[in-house]
Amino acid sequence: MEEFWFYTQLGLDHVLDRNAYDHILFLSALAIPFTFKNWINVLWLATIFTVSHCLSLALSAFEIVTVDVSLIEFLIPVTILLTALYNILKLRKQTAYKSMLWPMVATAFFGLVHGFGFSNYFRMLMADSDEKVGPLLGFALGIELSQVIIVLLVLFLVYLCLSVLKFKQAAFISVASTIIILITIPLLYNTFPW
User: Rounded to 5 degrees, what are φ and ψ at 5?
Assistant: First the structure.
């Protein structure tokens, strides 16, 4: 049980690490179009992200799939950029999320990419362990808990900006997504596989 909690803490630290803020950026981009009224939708997206993230870790831990780390390191900021751009493009079309299918499929794919970004380190941690399922479940719990924290913080920020500061939702989504894009551009440049 101690090992389970070690991996739960590792999952929490993995997402909440300020130095590896790609998860926070991605989850922020994912959550800013939502409000507390439709919080369940963004929590579903966060859970889909967790499941696909852990699926890629499992594929790596059991040595079923190996990927080029430099490509994954580049694809991670691409997923953040695409999510933020999608928010802005969705505003231009002035359509609400009528279907959650596209965000769900995109989030699952992005979760796989982000999971493979951590897979080499995770595989090294698990190298001497015969038991891999418990640590994977502990790690998944840590990721999910940290993502719920981030999503709730973003939803609170949305509430503050829309209800207290009286920003228009479209303006908030546009500005917040643009800020995320500007933060992501250096990540793209630094990880581009030259």
Answer: -70, -30
Total residues found in the chain within this entry: 194
Residue type, 34: F
Do residues 155 and 42 lie in contact, with contact meaning Cβ atoms separated by under 8 Å?
yes
pTM, entire model: 0.87
Q: Which H or E element spans position 131?
A: none
CA 172 to centroid of chain Cα atoms: 20
CA distance 183 to 24: 12
* 130: number of Cβ within 10 Å: 5
56's CB contacts (< 8 A; 6+ apart) are: 65, 111, 112, 113, 114, 115, 116, 119
Name the region of 47 (left: φ>0; alpha: ψ -120 to 50; beta: rest): alpha
User: How many other CB atoms sit within 10 Å of the CB of residue 66?
Assistant: 12
DSSP designation for 98: S
Per-residue model confidence as pLDDT tens digits over 77-136? 999 999 999 999 988 765 555 667 778 888 999 999 988 888 877 777 777 777 888 888
